[in-house]
Batch of 4 targets.
Target 1
Amino acid sequence: MAKALWAKWKSVKPRQKRMYLYLAILLGVLGWKVIPRPWFPTVTLETAHHIVYSTATREQAQDTAQKMELLYQAYSNVFGTLPKFQRGHPKLKVNLFKDRKEFRWINPGLGWAEAYYRFP
C-alpha cells in the first residue's frame, strides 16, 4: 500500500507538488490564526450561580465572582417575573483570563471582546 502511494506521488508533476506545498503552508497559517489553544486555569471558584475558572490571582477572581453574583441578582430581580424565567438551572461557567494578551493568545481568531460565548 505504501509503495503504491509512493509510486503515485513520484508520478505527480513538480508544479502540482509545489501547489500542494503552498496549500499545506496556507492551511498551517490559517490553523495558527484560527484554532483555539489549550488553556489551563489555576484558580477555580464556585458561587451560588457561577463556576469561575481563572488564571488571574485568587483576589481578582473572587472580586469578579462577587460582582457577577450582584449582576445576577439584579438581573433576576428585573426579569424574575417573566413566565419563561428559569430559576433552577445549572451553574454558569466562566473563564476569566488574567489579561487581554492571554485572552488573545488562547482565542487567536477573535477580535476585541469583553465576553465570548460558546457552546460546550
Target 2
Amino acid sequence: MGRLFSPIALGPLEIGNRIVMAPMSRTRADENGVMGSLNAQYYAQRSGAGLIVSEASWISPSGRGLANSPGLTDENHVAGWKWVTDSVHEKGGKIFAQLWHCGRASSPHLAAGEAPVAPSAIAAYGRILTPEGFRNFPVPRALDTDEIRGIVAEFAHASKNAKDAGFDGVEIHAGGGFLIDQFLQTGSNVRRDKYGGLSANRCRFLFEVVESVAKVWGEDRIGVKLTPSNRDFGMIDADPQILFTTAVKGLDELGIAYVHMVEPLESDLKEGDVLKDNAQRFRPYFRGRMMAGGRFDAAKAEMILEKEGADLVSFGRLFISNPDLPERMRLDKPLAKPDPETFHGEGEKGYTDYPALEPHPYLRLVEEE
C-alpha cells in the first residue's frame, strides 16, 4: 500500500496515515448521553487511525434523535468525552468530535418532550421507535428566524464543550437527512425567507454554523460532512448538482480543513441518480482536504488516493470488527466481519471484544526483554 499509509497535514495537525475512522452511532452512552470507561476503551483500541471522527453528539436536547447517543451540552458530557480523548491521545491518536442536530428525524420522547423542529413543517419519511412502539415520524414545527440564530449559538456552545473535552477539532454533520441537510434540500425546505428558495439561501444555515464554530476553533480545525446522494428520511433535492456545488464552494471560501464527502452504495442508486463519485465530482471546487467515505476497502481507497480524488478515506463498519484496521491493511491480513446484531445496544459484546492481531512471537519476546 502506498498513499494510504503516508502522513498528511490536516490544518495544523500532522496525521500519520490517510485512514480515518468514520463516525458511527453505537448507542453506548448512558441515558443522559454521558460517555464512560467502556467508550474510552473502544476508541483507544482504534487509535491507530490517522484520525478518529467520533460518533455524532447532539448539540441540544431538542436535537437528539437516538436513545443512548452522546451529547455535548453540559459539564457531564465534557467529563465523559474527556475520558475518551485522553485515552486516544495516550495511544498517540487524534480525534474530532462530530456535532449533530437531528431536526425532524426525531420525536418528542427524544427531543426534550417537544415536537421536533425543522426548516419547514414536512415530516421525515419512515418510522421511529417510541415508548409506544414504532410510529411514523411526527410533523415537525417550522423554526422561526430567531430560533435559527439560537441553534447556531448551540452549535458554538457544543463546539466549546468539545474543546474543553480535549478533542483535536470538530466535524459538523451537514448530511444524513439531519437538520442542516434538511435546510439544504428542497424536499424538506420550502421556506420563503432568507433561508429558503435559491441554493445560496438554503446553504445559509450551514455557513452560519461553520462561522460560529470557527470563532471557537478556527477554520482549520473544522470539517463538514455532506451526503449528496443520501435518500434517508425521504431526502431529495430538485437540483443536487447546483446545491452541493454551491455548498462546497462556500465551504472553500470559509477555509475549513476538510469536506467529508460520502459516496452512495450501488444498491442505493436509483434510475436517474446523477450524484456518485462525489468526492471526485466536487473536488475541483474545494482547495482543502477532501475525505471520501462509503464502504471503501483498501484497494478502492488506494485507487481514489492515487487519482487524487480524495486526500483521506473514512472507514466505518470495518473499524467495528477490526480495532487495529490500519495494521491489518498494512500487513494485508484477513479482516474480521462485524456482527450487525451488536451495532447498537449496550455492553462489551460487539463493541470492545473484537480482538486485535496477535503480535509475532519474536516481537513479544523482544517486548518482554
Target 3
Amino acid sequence: MSPATRTFRPAVPADFPAVASLLNLAYLSAGVNLTETADTVKERHQNALVIVMEDRGVIAGTLTLAPAGSYYGRLARPGQAEVSRLAVSITHQGRGVGKAMLKTTAELCRRQGVTALVGASLPSMTTAHRLCESIGAKQRTSPGAKARGYILDLTNEKDTK
C-alpha cells in the first residue's frame, strides 16, 4: 500500500460496522475482547472524532481523537487531545498504516494549536508501544496505572515530521 492510495478522513455512519469489526479483530489479536458494535462506534463518534484510513476503498485503520475534558479525553490535559482505539486491519498491519495515521493526526492537531497527543495501551500491546515510540512519543507513567501511557509533544514542529 503506497501513501498515494491512502485516504485519511472522519468516519461516516456507513463505516461504523466495518470500524467495529476492524477494532474487534485487531484487539483480539492482542488478547483484548472489545465487543465493539456499530452502535458503540456511533456513540463514540457523537462524543469524539472517529477517523479512518482507507486503502483503495477498504478501511485499513482507525483511531478515535478526543479533546481534553471530554468523556473520551480523560487522559488529556487542557490544550491536549487523546488518541484511543487505534487499530490497523490484520491485512494491512506492517505496512505503515498506524504510523501514518498517528503522524497525520499529530500534524493536523498541531496546526489547530493542540500542544500534545496522549494515549494509553495495555502492557500486552507491545506493537502499540513500539509505534508510539517510533513517532517520538515518550512514555508517561502514572502511579498504580495498569495501562502504559504515552505523550507526543506537538509544540516542536520537527517532532511531527
Target 4
Amino acid sequence: MGRLFGQLTGRSLRLSITLFLAFILSYIFLGVLAFQFPETLRVMLRWAADAERFLTSTGLPARYNNFIEIYLNKATILLVFLTVIARIVIAVLATVASESIRSLNPPPAKHAGVRKMAPAR
C-alpha cells in the first residue's frame, strides 16, 4: 500500500510540475511573440479569431452555444495552443534529460548465476 501511495504521489507531483511549467512557458512564448515576432502573433490571433467564429457558429442550441461564447475567445484559444506547444517542449526536454541520466547509470547486468547440479541417483 505504501509503495502504491508513493507512486501515485510521485506521478501527481510530476503532473502538477509539468502543468505549472507549461502555464509559465506559454506566457513566456506569448511575450516573445509579442516583442520579437509581432507579425507572427497577429497571424496567430487571426487564426484564433477564425477558430472562434467557426466554433460559435456550429448551430448548437442556445443553452450550449451561450457557454461557448462566454468561455471561448481568441485569447483563450491562443493560450491553449501555446500551452500545448509548451507541453510538447517540456516532454521532449524531460525525455532527453531522463534518457541522459539513465545512460549515465545503466542497470546492473543480470548474472546467469551458478546452477546447482541435481543430485545423482
